[in-house]
Amino acid sequence: MAKSAPFESAPVFATCLIVLTLLLGEEAAYADEKAAQGAPSSVRPKEKAWLLVQKSQFEEQVFKIELYLQADRIRVNMSGEPSPTDGTLRVDKTEIWNLREGRISNVDHVRKTAYFTPLTEDRDQIIGEFGGRNEGLSLRPLGTKRKVSTYACSEYEVVVSGEAFGKVCYSKDLPKPLLKLYRAVGERIEKARGPSVITQVDLRTEGFLMSYVDEENAVTEITSIQEIPIGTEIFEVPPDYRDTSAERSRPVPPSPEEEGLPAGE
Question: Are 135 and 264 contacting, i.e. CB atoms less than 8 angstroms apart?
Fold first, then answer.
């Protein structure tokens, strides 16, 4: 089975909030001035979201993932420094999932670019890859429990069509509103994009995925969970970022090997 990148392996899938302190300070000062003048404030009201922070590590590369979860919107930030040995670049990316509009915004903060895809993109591919795995999916309780971020969780081995797919640790000790929201969002994503191993395991355990070790020993674990006030602007792409959606739709030129030419000609 092809390995998923850490950024793609979580259900609501694995996350750095860009806090524009100066901008927010100026906006608040402007609102105070307007309020003093009797004018209506332009500051957006705060909403609540669940913030889940994860740490993901594969070999020498470590990623920090932040997941902001609401009923209709998800923001996943992922940041990571270059690997000390393989020369990979610094990662600073965001995915914004708007379930109401059926759209995913893919943001690269290093390049200051963004492209947009429908939530249903790759649905046929996802369903095709999953195939009959739903019937072949089973969870084998390992009979062990441990704590992840202060929450007790039970460990399972995930078996797909007879093959080990990794090890997960699920908890039912989290706040009930979060568990209910997590399940509802997972069902909406699966309905739009098709089933995956992770969403199927989520729905079967009725718990919360606290830790995941895949078949190549990439480890992702929750490090903190809290409900926080947020500004709705975190679900928007910065206005000065360049839209590269059109560039993605251009056909990729064939490689020299595909054209039957020696490399370099």
Answer: no
Q: Which two tokens stand for residue 19?
A: 């806090």
SS (H, E, C) the chain: CCCCCHHHCCCCCCCCCCCCHHHHHHHHHHHHHHHHCCCCCCCCCEEEEEEEEEEEEECCEEEEEEEEECCCEEEEEEEECCCCCCCCCCEEEEEEEECCCCEEEEEECCCCEEEEEECCCCHHHHHHHHCCHHHHEEEEEEEEEEEECCEEEEEEEEEECCEEEEEEEEECCCCHHHHHHHHHHHHHHHHHHCCCHHHHHHHHHCCEEEEEEECCCCEEEEEEEEEEEEEHHHHCCCCCCEECHHHHCCCCCCCCCCCCCCCCC
Q: In this structure, what is the dihedral angle of CA atoms 190, 196, 197, 198, given to the nearest 10 degrees?
A: -50
**Angle, in degrees to the nearest 10, between helices 176-193 and 197-205:** 140
**Tokens encoding 261:** 């030419």
Give the amino acid at 217: N
The CA distance from 126 to 118, in Å, is 14
Tell me: the pLDDT tens digits for 6-63? Answer: 433 333 333 322 222 222 233 333 333 333 344 344 556 689 999 999 998 887 788 8
Q: Residue type at 84?
A: P
pLDDT in tens, 174-214: 999 998 898 888 888 878 877 665 666 666 666 888 999 98
Distance of alpha carbon 113 from alpha carbon 197, whole angstroms: 31
Chain centroid to CA 158? 21
